[in-house]
Design a protein that fits this description.
The chain is mainly alpha-helical. It contains nine helices and no strands.
Length: 278
């Protein structure tokens, strides 16, 4: 019954005049001291033929809104608790990723002129070829992107499940940071600050909003598994922690697949629409 969930209702919104101040006062007293307000309110509405359907509809609607907001809040709360409970691990992984970014920037800034010229020519050829394309085979691009992200996610998961694989996880995160720093520095170096940043925002920003947290979270999950196994080496605990790591990794893999869709169907379309300005 709807009135069993009276806390979802906003009774002050009911129109029609039957909820007079006297009744609201009685309702508050019963709710505060005896917790009988839902029961009384239910009986009262059963005899209010004019307003019952209105109240019932509002109650259901408010309940749905409440439950939706509660679920969204719960998701954010879980994410927040996960980050707080593993803040040291997140700091370590984030630091490694940032070191990789700066390494990529440093590499481009100190590269010799001849290799830099070749890279510049390649990028310019890519842009010109992209401008001349009338249509893009997005399905093939999506398959390629999904394959790359699946390989990356499964690699981090697999090496995270082995004690000796944690350094490899660190290496993967370092390499992904290097690639990002390399790309950003290269685009700015060749196109200039304005066009370079615009190109980066169009081609990299949207998917990386999800991609970077996903791979960092995968790495943190691997570290957490390693620490749990070292702390408790019982077979039952190892199985449980590996299961938790696997379930969490599957969720992160789904997010990585979403980033592939964003990359191909949003970022690529944006680039196609704005490529003439580069």
């Amino acid at each position: 019954m709807c009135m069993q969930n009276v806390e979802y209702c906003q009774i002050e919104r009911i129109e029609g005049g039957f909820l007079n101040p006297f009744f609201l006062t009685i309702f508050d007293i019963l709710h505060t001291h005896y917790d009988l307000a839902p029961f009384v309110f239910d009986i009262f509405l059963k005899f209010s033929s004019i307003n019952f359907l209105i109240e019932y509809t509002l109650c259901i609607k408010d309940k749905e809104i409440y439950m939706k907001e509660r679920k969204e809040f719960k998701v954010f709360r879980i994410i927040k608790e996960h980050v707080i409970n593993n803040k040291k691990e997140y700091f370590i992984i984030f630091l490694i990723f940032v070191i990789g970014i700066f390494s990529g920037v440093f590499f481009i800034n100190n590269i010799q002129q001849e290799p830099k010229t070749e890279i510049t020519n390649y990028l310019n050829q890519f842009i010109e070829k992209f401008k001349s394309l009338e249509s893009i085979n997005k399905i093939e691009l999506l398959k390629s992107s999904i394959a790359q992200n699946l390989l990356l996610g499964i690699s981090i998961w697999f090496f995270g499940t082995t004690v000796i694989g944690i350094p490899i996880v660190f290496g993967i995160i370092l390499y992904r940071g290097f690639c990002l720093g390399y790309t950003i520095s290269l685009c700015i170096s060749i196109m200039g600050l304005g066009k370079g940043l615009s190109f980066i925002v169009i081609t990299l920003l949207l998917q990386n909003i999800l991609f970077i947290p996903a791979i960092l979270a995968l790495a943190v999950s691997g570290i957490k598994l390693y620490k749990s196994i070292v702390k408790d080496k019982r077979k039952e605990n190892i199985k449980l922690e590996i299961l938790r790591h696997t379930v969490f990794s599957i969720i992160m893999l789904i997010i990585l697949l979403i980033t592939s869709v964003i990359e191909i169907f949003i970022s690529t379309n944006l680039l196609k629409a704005l490529i003439k300005y580069f």
